[in-house]
Amino acid sequence: RIHTADSCQKILENNRRIINDDRIVPRVKNCVEPSPSSPYGKDVYSYRIIEQTIRQTFDKDRQPIIVVPGLMLGATDSRSYTNLSKNLYRFSPFIYHHDDLDRLHGDNERMTHLDVQRGLNFYFHLIVNNQLGHIPESKLNTEL
């Protein structure tokens, strides 16, 4: 997977520079350009709805959750939708512990009942919040 600051051409040129041998002719069998970064920030409504829904779902005991954009390293199906929208956000509303990581897409894949509830609650409120037409309050919502 290519970093969003790179391109197939940049990587090929960098490899040529590093190899620095005209006898070696690099070939590219397959290269998929990186997905563009989705917009984020206080003025981006779609990002703010997700940010607020995360707060509604994960805030505990009045301890605020800090939501920051990040880079998804795995290739996801969202790459098929880049021609439909620039607002493609990859977020998983589940909490994985260290011993869970080996099971993702592997043997004995599972998640806790609490995580399933939290995930359903997140998606429920994400749908509801998108229908409101405004950014909802930061009140914790644990009901479906």
Automatic annotation (TrEMBL):
One Gene Ontology BP term is: amino acid metabolic process
Keywords assigned: Hydrolase, Metal-binding, Protease, Zinc
Query: Record's SUPFAM superfamilies?
Result: Zn-dependent exopeptidases
Q: Which InterPro entries match?
A: Pept_M20A
Q: Which superkingdom heads the taxonomic lineage of this protein's source?
A: Eukaryota
EC numbers, comma separated: 3.5.1.14
Specify the enzyme's EC class, one word.
hydrolase
Q: Does the keyword DNA damage apply?
A: no
Q: Name one GO molecular function term.
A: metal ion binding
Q: Does the keyword Oxidoreductase apply?
A: no
Recorded hits in Gene3D superfamilies, A to Z, give: 1.10.150.900
Q: What family is reported? A: Belongs to the peptidase M20A family.
Q: What is this protein called?
A: N-acyl-aliphatic-L-amino acid amidohydrolase
Q: What phylogenetic lineage does the species belong to?
A: Eukaryota, Metazoa, Spiralia, Gnathifera, Rotifera
